[in-house]
């Protein structure tokens, strides 16, 4: 069910320095996600999204709040969106919260890093180009398998992997910094050498500048329960292998993580793809300081 809520705050400061994704602030315009990936960690209890698999909540006052918060920020740092939900899930086509947030981000001169599984991001090329020209704009597509039918089973609400890579190519051709998050790599399903080779090769063809991997997955409370339920339906017989291999553990590494890491690293080196993404260095917001002067 789609519901509307009022948010109290919007931009959350990322703790510490985020060397992997380069984020300074986190932005979530929605709660819940229509992509319904069977492995999604946002179902975990710690995030307190009660009905993750049925409800999507739209923060109806988000843009007004975002503009207010941006005006008061003392640091210009990268705003990341896409970790707890996909900013380009299907309803965004109509609701346009992400587009309006990008308009605000562009107007206030902040950098942005979008993580998505959807080619709907192409709608906003104009704004991404503008933000990229002013400060920094990066779009990272998550691709966990090179096999489209498999991606449809694992990530049923999202466009298949080849559509994501085609979108990456278009953005790259427009000069926007693009890359791939190769994560998670699901044990016994996606942890094959062929899959890693294929993703790196396809990402290279599409123009990816970087690939960020994680060879394994997390398995936490509600996330694990949902995932195992889906395994029983989609991959009968696989659940006992997980239970035997990982028990109640949080971390479920790929079977041959070390070998996959080698393949990833060597393939990236051969193709000239970076294994870290170029990030924006946060700086003081002189505009905000100027606004504060009359106060003193
Ligand atoms: S797109 Fe991301 S947030 Fe949405 S269900 Fe999939 S993993 Fe979760």
Give your account of this protein's structure.
By secondary structure, the protein is an alpha/beta fold. Helices cover 39% and strands 17% of the residues. The strands form 4 sheets. It has a 7-stranded mixed beta sheet with strand order 2-3-7-8-9-10-11. A 3-stranded mixed beta sheet has the order 1-5-4, with no helix packed on it. β8 (112-116), α4 (125-134) and β9 (137-142) form a beta-alpha-beta unit. The longest helix is centred in the C-terminal third of the chain and has 15 residues, at 257-271. The termini are far apart. Bound molecules: iron/sulfur cluster. The site of iron/sulfur cluster (SF4) has 11 residues, from loops.
Number of domains: 1
| DSSP helical segment count | 11
Major beta-sheet overview: 7 strands, mixed
* First and last CA, distance: 49 Å
- Overall structural class, as computed from helix and strand content, comes to alpha/beta
Q: Tell me what the CATH architecture is.
A: Alpha-Beta Barrel
In this entry the ligands are: iron/sulfur cluster
- CATH superfamily, please? Aldolase class I
Rg value = 19 Å
Proportion of beta-strand residues: 15-25%
Which parts are unreliable, with pLDDT below 50 for 5 consecutive residues or more? none
Order of helices and strands: EEEEEHEEHHEHEHHEHEEHHEHEH
Shape from CA axes?
globular
What portion of residues is helical?
25-40%
**The CATH top-level class label:** Alpha Beta
What is the average per-residue confidence, as pLDDT, rounded to a whole number?
95
């Amino acid at each position: 069910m789609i519901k509307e809520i009022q948010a109290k705050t919007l931009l959350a400061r990322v703790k510490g320095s985020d060397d992997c994704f380069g984020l300074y602030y986190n932005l979530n315009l929605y709660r819940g996600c229509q992509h319904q990936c069977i492995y999604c960690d946002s179902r975990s209890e710690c995030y307190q999204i009660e009905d993750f698999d049925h409800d999507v909540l739209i923060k109806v006052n988000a843009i007004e709040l975002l503009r207010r918060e941006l005006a008061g920020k003392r640091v210009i740092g990268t705003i990341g969106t896409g970790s707890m939900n996909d900013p380009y899930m299907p309803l965004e086509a109509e609701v346009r919260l992400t587009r309006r947030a990008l308009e605000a981000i562009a107007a206030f001169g902040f950098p942005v890093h979008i993580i998505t599984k959807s080619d709907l991001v192409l709608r906003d090329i104009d704004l991404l180009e503008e933000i990229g020209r002013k400060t920094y704009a990066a779009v990272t597509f998550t691709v966990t398998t090179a096999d489209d039918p498999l991606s449809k089973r694992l990530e049923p609400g999202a466009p298949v992997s080849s559509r994501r890579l085609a979108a990456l190519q278009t953005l790259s051709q427009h000069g926007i910094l693009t890359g791939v998050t190769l994560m998670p790599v699901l044990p016994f399903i996606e942890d094959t050498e062929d899959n890693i080779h294929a993703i790196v090769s396809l990402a290279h063809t599409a123009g990816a500048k970087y690939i960020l991997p994680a060879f394994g997955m997390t398995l936490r409370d509600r996330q694990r329960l949902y995932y195992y339920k889906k395994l029983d339906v989609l991959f009968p017989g696989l659940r006992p292998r997980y239970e035997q291999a990982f028990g109640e553990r949080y971390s479920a590494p790929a079977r041959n993580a070390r070998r996959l890491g080698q393949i990833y690293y060597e393939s990236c080196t051969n193709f000239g793809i970076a294994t870290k993404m170029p990030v924006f260095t946060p700086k003081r917001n002189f505009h905000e300081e100027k606004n504060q002067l009359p106060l003193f």
